[in-house]
Amino acid sequence: VTEQKNNKISIYLHIPFCKSKCGYCSFASGIYPESVIKRYFELLPKEFDLFFNDFSESLEVPTLYIGGGTPSAVPSNFLSNVIAKLLSMIHNMPFEITIEANPGDIDHSFIKACKEIGVTRISLGVQSFKDNVLAFLGRRHSASQAVDAFNLLRESGFSNISIDLIHGVPTFGPDRWLIDLKSILDLSPEHISLYALSIEEGTPFHENKIYEKIDNDHVATEYHLAVKMLRDAGYNRYEISNFSKPGYECTHNLNYWHMGNYIGFGVSAASFIDGIYFQRFQDVSKYIECLEKGISTIESLEEFHGRDRWVNAMIMGMRLEDGIHIHEFNRRFGIDISKVVKDKWRNYIDDSHVIMDDERIRFGDKGFYVSNSFLSMLI
Amino acid sequence: MVSGRIFIVIQKENIRNFAIIAHIDHGKSTLADRILEITGTIPKIRMREQILDRMDIERERGITIKAQAVRIDYKADNGELYRLNLIDTPGHVDFTYEVSRSLAACEGAILLIDATQGFQAQTIANLYLALEQDLQIIPVINKIDLPSARPDALKREIQTIIGTKPNEVLAISAKTGEGVSELLEIIVKEIPSPKGDEDTSLKALVFDAHYDDYRGVIVYIRVMDGAIRKGDWIRMMATDKKFQVNEIGVFKPDMTPIDILQTGDVGYIIATIRDIADSRVGDTVTSHEKPADKPLPGYKRPKPMVFCGLYTVETADYEHLGQALEKLSLNDSAFTYQPETSQALGFGFRCGFLGVLHMDIIKERLEREYNLELIVTVPNVVYRITDTKGYVKEIENPEEFPDSTHLTKVEEPYVLLRLVTPSEFMGPMMELNHKKRAEYIKMEYLSEERVTLEYYLPLAELIVDYYDKVKAGSKGYASVDYEFHGFREADLVKVQILINGEPLDAVSFLSDRESATRKGRVMVMKLRRSIPRHLFDVPIQASVGGKIVARETIKALRKDVLSKCYGGDVTRKRKLLEKQKEGKKRMKMFGNVNIPQDALLIVLDISEDDK
Prior knowledge:
Strand order of the largest sheet of chain A: 7-8-6-5-4-3-2-1-9
Number of helices of chain B: 14
Oligomer: heterodimer
Largest interface: A-B, 45 and 25 residues
Strand content of chain B: 25-35%
Distance between the termini of chain B: 57 Å
Strand order of the largest sheet of chain B: 11-10-16-7-8-15-12-13
Largest sheet of chain A: 9 strands, mixed
Order of helices and strands of chain A: EHEHEHEHHEHEHHEEHEEEHEHEHHEEHH
Number of strands of chain B: 34
Radius of gyration of chain A: 21 Å
């Protein structure tokens, strides 16, 4: 069974630059001199060329996601120029173009650039509406800046705004989280991403052993509180950490979780095309060097075979509230997933852990947040 | 193999058979090395550190497990040639009987004491064994080269214990060789030559044996009366088995065949004995044609007193474990094993040992020499039960312990325990023994600073973290020795541990009634801390006689997921899950509950402390 080929491919563009680095951040990002930023933007089109020279014919690009780092932290004209070049290479206009932004960067010049690019969706990295939490996380903006930024975007006509919040922050009790949830509901964004603080190796938080302070029960309590409050306010949890008003799901991210094709450009960007997964250099200077020499920026490449293919699809698909579609899944991977699940998860197929009917397999409220335990049973 | 069989005939009068009594690390092996070197028995170039300890494990732990014997030709200052047979004794507490048999093969013993440490319990115990055999004792103070040596204080202790005047005690450094030549002269002068009758029936004492893959059992003997020659038919008096001797020899220290071992001689015989149980330590070898009318005194059959289950971490290694146990038992008739099955641990073996150190050694050898990863269940002692019909039975496995309604009497083994401690730690030592249900016998001062304490102690208490507690309570200065004393009536109950409502046999145990609840609680706490959270609540309970005495609940896991996961993360995530899965492999599935291997190891760690 081979991956069904199609001509749809989403694009991710990584902007690895920040004005400051947050204590928890493990993404390829950092503070660089403007000369490096300039060079990066000059060279990115070379990478677009390399890709589109091979594939240009009939590619349809439904979504474009500009992430980071902090895309809003670079000079707006750099952004608009490079996106213009990118869009000139594809034949359709993506119907969803998302850009990540720091609330401290939202000004008229940024908004103007977004309009030029054709941004349809803004993902605002608010993280918290409490200044002491923001200070703990190492965010450079204030709570009031976040509210102002949101309002400015609204006034400027952006009708699809997503806000990121981080919960499970140690030393802050559940009351902090309640305030954040109330604040976000006051703003009523179309989309909300809730991430639990995770401490990755190589981050300042890891060095300071913040992980020792993280209490997963506290994290779970905050999560379940959020699920309830957001549902009551009319949001759907369509993925473990993502909530939206009906019709405002992030199509770009859904494509990841459906194991659809995507091409990533820029430092560290990952791509998945017809069952082959690859990732570009994590190191900015190494990446720039490759592009200057006109050689491939791919650092690692892996082709998924056999079991890995459907296990990956389960890892991703089961993050969704709707879980996986049994027949589609079986057709795509040539297995009998309900049989596997009935065997491996037999003690947990009920209303709250794993919910299975003729069409779908999905996690219930008790299963979602412990899905690693379930998924590891499949391996 | 043997170059030049030149053996000078030496009369019995010029033979000196002796042992070295010393505590671990007091320098016994170094002294033996030095003697071999000075007498030219082994050229310096061939000297391997502590050549008498053959096994790696012995060298590493500094403990001699198997006794060894080496023949040394020594030209004394008086110009005469002497034959010294140095018999090395096993150096640890579980082998009191074996030590006593090695000593029985000697006429004298060097009492070697570390000048920085003084007498230790084991030294005193072995000294008493030597005195029981009427051995001539030569007290020697070792390590006088060390700056912390306190030879004068030690001389006073020696005077207290064996009455030797301080100015008559030899002080040496086995390391530098200082005083070792003088010691050789003293050995020749003070240790009596062997007695015994050359013209009567053969009587030879078996003081050790080991199994050789090609040659069968090699029996270490000391000829007490008569002589033994190649080709003789011999009989083992305890097992009543008959063999023909096809090789006789001595250790120089390599095995060197000779034609005859005469009265007073020490050496080995090979007689196509396939089973080591046929040449038991303490048995008497006699002539088949002209047997002695009675054996040498003191023979006892070794009896395992401490039992535990041995299981492999990898189920597939079970057969390998069985083969390894068979091999080890070829060389150790004191240790027993038989297959058993545990609900939690699968297929394994119930093994019997002389004591916990014996157990540790076997375990370590299995791990090291046979590359086995093992799980060892909580050790238990042998219990003697009398049922309502009056039948007496010995129970080696807590699983077999019957319901108390079927019993009229339960007895447990006691040891006579001797502790030597600096007097400042007397309080903690007495307190420890009190807690361990010990019965005080007496206390004696060795000097102003050091005391011996004697107790009757349940063996069950000795095998659970007793040594660690002594070490901790005395900053490592106290030492312990024991010998088996006898059985005493006990009030025992079985503490069942239930995981998710099911009894987990591997961690259930027997306890005296008084501490059952406390021990049950500790076990439950330990399990709660070492079993990971599951997708459901896991209750852990301890029950005594059907009554729950302790309960802890491992709450269901609430979060294990990475909340952020995008395109590029899928490989990383899969690897994480694979790692998690790998971890699961190292768990034992018990009902629906996964118990990690290391959790079992933690709870099976015999310390009962609630750390």
